[in-house]
Design brief:
RNA_MeTrfase_RsmD; methyltransferase; 5 helices; 7-stranded mixed β-sheet; 192 residues; 29% strand; SAM-dependent_MTases_sf; DNA_methylase_N6_adenine_CS; single chain; 16S rRNA (Guanine(966)-N(2))-methyltransferase RsmD; alpha/beta
């Protein structure tokens, strides 16, 4: 059972994706991640993008903690339907329409956004499925990088056994943390 840990919707129970097609972030990892983001002042009034959203738990947690807007991007039909339910739950509790769901492949979504020339995100979560290759992840990061605000933070969650992502020149890792079988990498736009 997954839940929203803190904020205006704290304690709300989230719908989980049925089956084994997704890998939910554990409450322990989520609490540590959001504690770090709060200490960096990266939750209040920010624009959040949750790629490979699964149930959308990281995105809706951000909304609960004060994010201005949250986009959940998920291609899997069952997971996208769960994202929609969790978005509706949080939007209802918050009395807003801050959380939206895009049923799309991540690469297609980022290509459409780039073509439209819109959107800059301040906080991006990426928890891709294990079968995603390192080359595919590098491509997504390169598509994402131009769509980030100057103070953005990108958080990539992977198995602790996978190598560090190949960052495009415009992104640089500033931290990493291992929690059991999970590793988080934190990156930001590279300095001039």
């Amino acid at each position: 059972m997954s839940r929203i840990v803190a904020g205006a919707a704290g304690g709300s129970v989230l719908v989980s994706v049925p089956g084994d097609g997704t890998r939910p972030t554990t409450d322990r990892v989520k609490e540590a991640l959001f504690s770090r983001l709060e200490s960096m002042n990266m939750l209040s009034d920010v624009r959040v993008l949750d790629l490979y959203a699964g149930s959308g738990s990281l995105g809706v947690e951000s909304a609960s903690r004060g994010a201005k807007s949250v986009e959940l991007v998920e291609f899997n039909d069952k997971a996208a339907a769960v994202c929609q339910l969790n978005a509706q739950l949080v939007n209802k509790v918050l009395g807003t329409k801050a959380v939206t769901v895009q049923r799309s492949k991540v690469e297609s979504f980022l290509a459409r956004v780039a073509e439209a020339g819109v959107d800059q995100w301040d906080l991006v979560f990426m928890d891709p499925p294990y079968p995603l290759t390192e080359e595919e992840l590098a491509l997504v990061l390169s598509l994402l990088a131009p769509r980030l605000s100057s103070y953005a933070v990108v958080v990539v969650e992977r198995s602790a056994r996978t190598p560090e992502p190949s960052w495009p020149e415009s992104l640089e890792r500033f931290a990493e943390k291992k929690y059991g079988e999970t590793r988080l990498w934190f990156a930001e736009p590279a300095g001039d």
